[in-house]
Amino acid sequence: MRFPDRTSSTKIRLKMNTTIVKAYGVEELGERVKELTVSRREVTAKDIEIEILFCGVCHSDMHHVHGDWGKEKYPLVPGHEIVGRVTKVGKEVTKLAVGDLAGVGCLVDSCQTCDSCKKDLEQYCLNGSTVTYGGKDKHSGEHTFGGYSEKVVVDEHFVLKIPANLNLAAVAPLLCAGITTWSPLRHWKVGPNSKVAVIGLGGLGHMAIKLAKGLGAEVTLFSRSPNKEQDAFDLGADAVIISTDESQMNSVSSKFDLIIDTVPYIHDVNPYVSTLSIDGTLVLVGYLGGLDPILNTVPMIMGRKSVAGSLIGGLAETQEMLDFCGEHNIVSEIEMIEMQDINEAYQRMLKSDVKYRFVIDIASLKK
Ligand SMILES: [Zn+2]
Ligand SMILES: [Zn+2]
To answer: Is the pLDDT of residue 1 over 70?
Structure first.
C-alpha cells in the first residue's frame, strides 16, 4: 500500500545504542537494490527484536525504489510484510516472548493518544503514524528501515501474533495485502448474505477474493481479460464479469453491496458504480489521486451509493484478520525468491508476471 507523505509531529531525539544489521536497499535514486548495512535501535522497555524469516514484496516497495512517488530518504530499505521469530524483548513487554512467531506490517509507531489511535485506527493517526520504512523513528530520530533485512526492532503494540498452523512465508503478504482488503470487508460488515465484487486480480485482489469468501459472501471478480477466469474460480470466486463486455456489465446492474477496487492506476470507476446495489459502496484501496473520467454523481444520488477509500487497517483489526486466517486456513498465493533476485522480481511485477505475491526468503540474505 502507498502512503501519503506525512511527517510525525512528535520529535523525540534520544541518543541510543544501535546494532548494525545486513539489509538490501538503495543508497540513491536509480540504483539497483543491493546489499548494504543499516542500524537498528537497541530494544527499549516496550520493544521486541525480531529475526526476520520472510518478507513479502509489495508494489509500493518497487515504486519507492524507482522514485515514482517523489523524494525518498536514503538509504531506502523496503519491506512491510514481515514475519519472523522473536529474539529479544524489553522488560515491560507482555505480548510475546523470545522464540514466538511475530509479524510486522506497514506501521511501526503512532502517537497512541489521538482520537484515531484510541479507536484502534492507528493507520489514520491524527499526528501521523510512523511507516515501516522511510518514516521517522521516534526513538532514534533516524528514519525507519523495512523488512529486506536480518532484524527489526518494533514497539510491541505494532507487533502481531502469527497463527502457528499457517505456512509462515505465505502469511507475510497478509500484513499489507491481507489487511488492506480485510479492513473494508469488516467496516462495511460483509457476511454470508453479502454480494461482494473485486476489481483487479493481483496481490490485493486475490486476497480480497479469499477473505470475502472466508466471510461467507458471494464473490464476483471484475476482469478486463477472460484469461483470468479460471484463476479467479480457483481462488474461490463464484463468478467473473468481463468489464469490457457491456451485456455482462448490464447483467450485474445494481447487484453488489461492496466493491473492492484494487486497481493501482487511474481508471474509470463509473461503470462499476452502476453495479452497486442501493446503499452499496465502492471502496478504492489501490490508487491515490484524481479520477478520470470524473465521477458521475447520477447513479450515486439515484441509489444512495458511495465511493470511498480505505488505508490498510489498525493493529487490533490486523490481529483479527490473522486470527481469522488461522481459523479458516487462509494464506496468500506466493512465489518464493532469494534476496539477490529482487531486481528481477520488480521487473516481473511491472509485467504482472507473478501469482500473486513474491516473498523473500531472508535466509538468502545471510549467504
Ligand atoms: Zn504494501
Ligand atoms: Zn495517533
So the answer is: no
CA distances to 104, 229, 348 from 108, in Å: 7, 38, 29
For the record, the C-alpha cell of 197 comes out as 465484487
- pTM (2 d.p.): 0.95
The ligand placed nearest to the CA atom of residue 315 is 2
Task: Give the closest residue to 58 by CA, choosing from 234, 150, 181, 164.
Answer: 181
Read off the C-alpha cell for 349. Answer: 511485477
From ligand 1's centre to the CA of 106, what distance in Å?
Answer: 7
- CA pair distance 222, 224, nearest whole angstrom: 7
Q: Which residue has the cell 506497514?
A: 106
Cis? peptide before 271, omega within 30° of 0: no
Question: Chain-wide mean pLDDT for the chain?
Answer: 95
Q: How far is the CA of 314 from the centre of ligand 2 (A)?
A: 11
Q: CA-based angle 21:159:163, to the nearest 5?
A: 110
In the reported structure, the alpha carbon of residue 287 is separated from the centroid of ligand 2 by a whole-number distance in angstroms of: 24
Ligand with an atom nearest the CA of residue 157: 2
What's the burial of 306, exposed, middle or buried (CB within 10 Å: 0-12/13-18/19+)? middle
Q: Separation of 117 CA from ligand 2 center, angstroms?
A: 4
Q: How many degrees, rounded to 5, is the angle at CA 116 between CA 110 and CA 118?
A: 85
Q: Which long-range contacts (CB under 8 A, 24 or more apart) does 44-47 make?
A: 44/90, 44/139, 45/90, 45/91, 45/92, 45/93, 46/90, 46/92, 46/93, 46/155, 46/156, 46/157, 47/89, 47/90, 47/93, 47/153, 47/154, 47/155, 47/156
Dump pLDDT digits (tens) for 109-148: 999 999 999 999 999 999 999 999 999 999 989 999 999 9
Could you tell me which of 233, 292, 282 has the C-alpha nearest to residue 257? 282
The DSSP string of 297-358 is: -HHHHHHT-EEEE--S--HHHHHHHHHHHHHHT----EEEEEGGGHHHHHHHHHTT-SSSEE
